[in-house]
Q: What sequence folds into this?
């Protein structure tokens, strides 16, 4: 899908283009009725030969599967033709991503699985698309449903009950990971655009991710949500982050199933993105690091769902290519290209799709961190300095909290900004135009050689809101000093809560991990302001938030910075 296609659906950042929608419809009709006329419709996309071959080797049908409580789950089944007596095949279960198509969003992958000798059972979780019931957001009910789906699958003649894998994208990734922690019959898992800690994704450093949350709720369709979920929605909107919200998120967080994964040593492949705006990337990294069984993590350029989308539609993508290899290796199919799957870390750097770095683990992927101290502005300069010299104290930058965005935002649009990044078109920030009364900026000297940032970051500042609560948002930018234009590297919000207004609080918090290459002569820019459209800020507007660097708690940013080899 192109950036222009997404622009057609700006009210729904997850929507497919009209062209892709028509393609999925034509694919489904050809699968259900593999007549020359139906298959011939696919010739306009160059897919006719693929589905003609599919019809010779496998059979496809839609079906409904009754859950124990009578809820009917919408599903589809693809099974190999002409298995010899006693012959069995591996099987893939695919819980749906969060979209109006449900499991039909996977139709483009089915020929690849079929050519590899797999049976495929794809389904829409209860309440989603054409399935009955209420949406529980990968809760215990959905995990129980997944086990019943496996029960139905193993009853199908020819399916090997010892070779079952789960593949899911986004919502389906969470369902797949949680199901694998519960059901020992699941022998391998792939989760693309995965989540690990749902609470951290909703509530980062005391700050609600309100834009992403509302986009997901809109896609779920609130009237289809369970009473429990509706209650949680209202609490998050009302900034009531209590034990009930924490339990709800915890029940849906794969990170809380780490012991189960390590006990079973189920092989897990996950993917995420450096500029992910929906789910917490640090939490995915933490889950990956905690796994002791076979594991792989792919981190790509862009935002949620960008990397795997072509593969879901039957084209080529790293996530789906890696998924075929992963399942082949662990389940014995032949859907991939025969190559050994990637274990450890695989990474693209922003904004180069052709980059492909590999490391055995996160520790070897990340660079040692260098500390840059936040210093006051030099004489005659508007911005502060980032310096590797001594800690700098005694300065204050006062930020006006107006409830309005500055030029610095996480991304102008959910999903779409990341898609443009994948096309090599990152959003350009005109940091020279930022009102210095609304934001504080610190800048390095021009880099003397090409550099790279690769790994994890930390910022420490002292924050004094004039009210009891205050929110800041930190951004690290790659700035061209000749033009004052920049591209974003990483970001994070932080909200402080004090017992009384005007109290200073020193906070140290991580920014989202990143992998970025910097040209010679560029400057790194740290920007801190008080509002971003992505987050619910706690500032009382109009008011003021002071950023300071007191003696003994001097402000800094730690960067995983090294020379470009």
A:
């Amino acid at each position: 899908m192109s950036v222009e296609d997404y622009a057609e659906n700006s009210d729904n950042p997850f929507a497919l283009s009209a062209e892709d929608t028509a393609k999925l419809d034509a694919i489904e009709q050809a699968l259900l009725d593999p007549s020359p006329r139906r298959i011939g419709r696919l010739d306009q996309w160059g897919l006719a030969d693929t589905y003609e071959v599919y019809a010779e080797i496998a059979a496809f049908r839609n079906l409904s599967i009754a859950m124990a409580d009578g809820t009917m789950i919408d599903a589809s089944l693809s099974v190999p033709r002409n298995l010899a007596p006693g012959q069995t095949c591996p099987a893939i279960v695919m819980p749906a991503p969060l979209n109006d198509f449900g499991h039909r969003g996977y139709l483009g992958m089915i020929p690849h699985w079929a050519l590899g000798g797999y049976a495929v059972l794809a389904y829409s979780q209860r309440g989603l698309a054409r399935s009955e019931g209420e949406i529980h957001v990968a809760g215990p009910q959905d995990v129980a449903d997944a086990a019943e789906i496996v029960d139905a699958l193993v009853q199908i003649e020819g399916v090997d009950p010892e070779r079952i894998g789960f593949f899911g994208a986004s919502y389906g990734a969470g369902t797949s990971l949680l199901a694998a922690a519960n059901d020992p019959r699941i022998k391998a898992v792939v989760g693309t655009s995965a989540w690990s800690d749902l609470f951290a994704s909703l509530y980062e450093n005391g700050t609600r991710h309100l834009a992403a949350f509302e986009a997901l709720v809109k896609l779920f369709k609130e009237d289809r949500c369970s009473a429990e979920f509706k209650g949680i929605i209202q609490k998050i909107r009302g900034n009531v982050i209590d034990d009930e919200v924490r339990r709800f998120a915890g029940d849906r967080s794969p990170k809380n199933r780490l012991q189960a994964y390590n006990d079973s040593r189920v092989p897990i492949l996950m993917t995420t993105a450096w500029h992910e705006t929906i789910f917490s990337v640090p939490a995915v990294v933490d889950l990956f690091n905690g796994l002791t069984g076979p594991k792989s993590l792919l981190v790509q350029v862009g935002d949620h769902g960008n990397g795997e989308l072509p593969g879901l539609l039957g084209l080529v993508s790293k996530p789906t290519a890696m998924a075929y290899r992963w399942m082949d290796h662990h389940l014995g199919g032949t859907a991939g290209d025969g190559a050994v799957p990637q274990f450890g870390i695989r990474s693209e750097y922003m904004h180069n799709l052709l980059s492909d770095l590999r490391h055995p683990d996160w520790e070897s992927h990340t660079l040692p961190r260098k500390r840059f101290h936040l210093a006051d502005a030099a004489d005659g300069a508007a911005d502060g300095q980032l310096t590797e010299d001594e800690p700098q104290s005694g300065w204050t930058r006062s930020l006006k909290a107006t409830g309005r965005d500055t030029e610095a935002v996480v991304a102008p649009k959910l999903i779409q900004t990341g898609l443009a990044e994948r096309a090599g078109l990152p959003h350009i920030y005109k940091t020279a135009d930022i009102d210095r009364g609304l934001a504080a900026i610190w800048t390095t000297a021009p880099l003397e050689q090409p550099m790279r940032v690769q790994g994890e970051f930390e910022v420490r500042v002292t924050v004094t809101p004039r009210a009891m609560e205050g929110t800041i948002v930190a951004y690290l930018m790659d700035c061209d000093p000749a033009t004052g234009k920049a591209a974003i590297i990483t970001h994070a919000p932080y909200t402080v809560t004090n017992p009384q207004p005007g109290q200073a609080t020193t906070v140290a918090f991580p920014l989202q991990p990143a992998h970025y290459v910097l040209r010679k002569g560029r400057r790194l820019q740290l920007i801190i302001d008080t509002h971003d459209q992505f987050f619910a800020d706690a500032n009382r507007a109009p008011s003021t938030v002071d950023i300071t660097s007191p003696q003994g708690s001097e402000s800094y940013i730690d960067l995983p910075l090294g020379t470009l080899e």
